[in-house]
Design a protein that fits this description.
The chain is an alpha+beta fold and 723 residues long. The chain is 34% helix and 16% strand. The strands form 6 sheets. It has a 7-stranded mixed β-sheet with strand order 19-20-21-18-22-23-24, sandwiched between helices.
Length: 723
């Protein structure tokens, strides 16, 4: 990395004065006159550019790290800037005015949802250690103490700095300042090749295994060896002359082990340099404030496990209850069954006006192929406009209906579009599922009119409002084949819950719904300052009473026990608005799932529950409280916000398929450890299953312990990474 002070000063041949609009660390918006210095590349191998700047409204000297429009079109380049911004903001919030804050660059603001995204830092302190040939012995102790303290702070947050080198460590003669935050990754994530010899560990260089805080210890040892001796060390082990440098040998002998398992942790090295310093860090960094909310989540699961299962409802429309081949028409919502006398195929104008007579077709392969492109005219409701149903929708058993619930403008359409696009891209294949379109022509139109424009960065038009007597809009259907070869149509509906009218049709539809996806709009739910700009732009306010659509749908669903038993998923949508706030940052940065781990699903559910309970209030958790099997998820359909009608980086979906995967698992289409029941509500701890033993009440100590036991199971696999 080029030293941040390398660029020319503001006004010295740089860009002319202008204005800079950005988001502050507190979430507010700031518009400031700005003058820029000359620009340089921070690292010749990385795309980020760097230049000094002066914010004239306050005379504040800053450093801007930015991407050109050309580089910003590369998702990998944007990901680096997002990682750097997220890490800098996390450390800013975590450390505040503590003594550890100066160890890292101080973020001033950022603007990422734009064609040329950037990050602003306060002026750096010191110069890059790479410009020091040999460090004085009197400075080495303080330098080592600060460097290992910074690594301990990162390790305490589950973060690993991969790019540590003399170019990323600044020194002003008294204190260290650690840059290169774009190279941070989370402990436990797969390693990928990163860094320069000899400062990257052997495993990091090869991209083997999982990231470990001891990777950075190797780098720190190499930096110290370079500053003590004036030359780089070997890339695969301890320097041959290490024993000639007594202090370095005592502190870092084990740090040169080529295997992470053989190296000390940052805290162990720090305790050699400054005994007790690790304990002081733990006492200074704020304690976890989400613990009461996590305990409330575990208690809620315990109560759900102990509640008696709901009795089957007669006529509820659950799978297998309709033995006469009837299904619900996705348009008029009346029952219909296959009638071979009402079949049609498309003519030359792609209109379904040509009758189909299958009586003379004896070849089953030919018949299946013809029937796949055929439709049946539905006359179940003579007052409803003429419409047709694809034949495969009527011949593959009862469709599994998935209804998206939420007020208008919550992002349901974008989320559902990207969910279906992820399926057609093969997102279900790792789980043993395959798909086909129910009707090729209708699916092609959906891709042409919805998927392709969104992927090209266009903002989709808002879905037209439902009519006065309408409450559900059919969007798309697919044929899903599970690992056992069973085929089932899956139909997706956009449910205008706030417009549900109390009609027999509405009740009949809700009785037949198999799964619900409740989409939470963070701008409506969370009174966080970083959402104020979005609220102002959209003309909305925080609603402490929850989404009216949620309540309307839940009130319409018949209840046959203490909980509703239709599987559901709650999704914190538009999560890119909060992509730099825990716990959203930890989940949104995870790669797409390729397997379903119940422990991870419960850990994510617990984190979303804690976020909503802590900031939005219990009203926004009503679906989770009312429905026995309900998982919670974080997702973004676009990966960022629009800028003048387009998504500058394109619409990059994040974790859009996970809610549907959870619903399919709860319906048994995907096998998960512990079974569908345990997947949603957790496995029953031993004391809850002991015959004759009375379960503790909600407020008892034993109840809290139960929650902790289950939470340990759920969070155990993810505890080091997500807590």
């Amino acid at each position: 990395m080029t030293s941040p002070t390398h660029s020319a000063g503001p006004g010295q041949g740089g860009a002319p004065p202008g204005k800079l609009v950005f988001t502050t660390p507190a979430g507010g918006r700031r518009v400031a006159p700005v003058r820029f210095g000359r620009e340089s590349r921070r690292d010749r191998l990385l795309p980020q550019l760097i230049r000094n700047c002066l914010l004239d409204d306050e005379g504040q000297q800053c450093v801007q790290v930015r991407l050109t429009a050309e580089d910003a079109a590369n998702p990998a380049a944007r990901a680096l800037l997002e990682t750097e911004t997220g890490t800098a903001l996390h450390l800013h919030r975590l450390l505040g005015d503590t003594a550890y804050a100066p160890l890292f660059p101080r973020v001033v603001g950022h603007e990422l949802d734009t064609a040329e995204p950037f990050l602003l830092y306060a002026a750096p302190r010191g110069i890059a250690a790479a410009r020091t040939h040999v460090m004085a012995a009197s400075d080495q102790q303080r330098f080592t103490r600060d460097l290992m303290t910074a690594l301990c702070v990162l390790d305490g947050q589950g973060l690993v700095l991969r790019g540590l080198s003399p170019a990323t460590v600044l020194w002003d003669g008294a204190r260290v300042q650690l840059w290169g935050l774009e190279a941070v990754t989370r402990a436990g994530r797969p390693r990928s090749p990163w860094g320069r010899l000899p400062f990257c560990s052997p495993e990091q260089r090869r991209g083997e295994g999982l990231a470990d805080s001891r990777d950075a210890v190797w780098s720190a040892a190499q930096v110290l060896y370079r500053l003590v001796t004036g030359r780089p060390g070997p890339a695969d082990g301890a320097p041959a002359d290490l024993d000639e440098h007594r202090v370095l040998d005592r502190m870092f002998r084990r740090a040169f082990d080529p295997r992470a398992a053989g190296r000390p942790t940052p805290a162990e090295v720090l305790d050699l340099v400054a005994p007790g310093a690790g304990d002081r860090i733990r006492l200074t960094v704020p304690a976890d404030e989400t613990r009461p909310h996590r305990e409330a989540f575990e208690e809620a699961l315990r109560l759900k496990r102990q509640a008696p299962l709901a009795r089957p409802r007669d006529g509820s429309g659950a799978p297998g209850e309709r033995g006469n081949g009837e299904v619900l028409c996705p348009y008029c919502l009346q029952t219909i069954q296959l009638d071979l006398t009402k079949l049609f195929v498309a003519d030359n104008t792609m209109q379904y006006k040509q009758p189909l007579d299958v009586s003379g077709i004896s070849n089953p392969v030919v018949l299946d192929d013809i029937m796949r492109g055929a439709v049946q005219k539905c006359a179940a409701d003579p007052d409803f406009p003429e419409h047709v149903i694809p034949v495969p929708y009527l011949t593959n058993g009862r469709p599994l209906t998935v209804a998206m619930v939420g007020q208008s403008s919550t992002g349901k359409s974008h989320l559902l579009t990207q969910m279906i696009a992820a399926i057609t891209d093969g997102g279900l294949e790792p789980f043993g599922l395959t798909w086909q379109s129910v009707n090729p022509e209708q699916h092609a139109r959906f891709v042409r009119e919805r998927v392709q424009p969104l992927r090209n960065g266009n903002v989709l038009d808002h879905t037209a409002a439902l009519g006065l007597d309408d409450f559900a809009r059919f969007v798309e259907s697919l044929l899903i084949t599970d690992a056992r070869g069973q085929v089932r149509p899956v139909a997706f509906f956009d449910l205008g819950g706030e417009d549900l009218v109390r009609t027999d049709a509405a009740l009949r539809f809700l009785l037949g719904v198999d799964a619900l996806v409740f989409v939470v709009d963070p701008a409506l739910a969370l009174p966080l300052p970083e959402l104020d700009h979005a609220r102002q732009r959209w003309g909305v306010e925080v609603n402490r009473d929850g989404d009216v659509a949620f309540g309307t749908v839940l009130d319409r669903l018949p209840k046959n026990g203490p909980y509703l038993d239709v599987p559901a998923a709650m999704v914190l949508g538009k999560a890119d608005l909060l992509r730099f706030r825990p716990p959203v940052d930890r989940w949104l940065s995870r790669p797409p799932a390729t397997s379903l781990d119940p422990a991870l699903v419960r850990a994510e559910s617990r984190d979303v529950h804690s976020l909503l309970r802590g900031h939005a209030g219990q009203a926004w958790l009503r679906p989770f409280d009312a429905i026995r099997r309900c998982t919670l998820h974080i997702a973004s359909a676009t990966g960022g916000q629009e800028d003048r009608g387009r998504y500058p980086a394109g619409a990059g979906p994040r974790r859009v398929l996970e809610p549907l995967l959870a619903l399919l698992a709860m319906h048994g289409l995907i096998d998960v450890p512990g079974g569908a029941e345990a997947f949603a509500v957790g496995e029953t701890p031993g004391f809850e299953t002991v015959p004759g033993r009375r379960a503790p009440g909600p407020g008892s100590t034993a109840g809290g312990t139960a929650g902790g036991t289950t939470g340990g199971t759920a969070g155990g696999a993810a505890g080091g990474e997500f807590r």
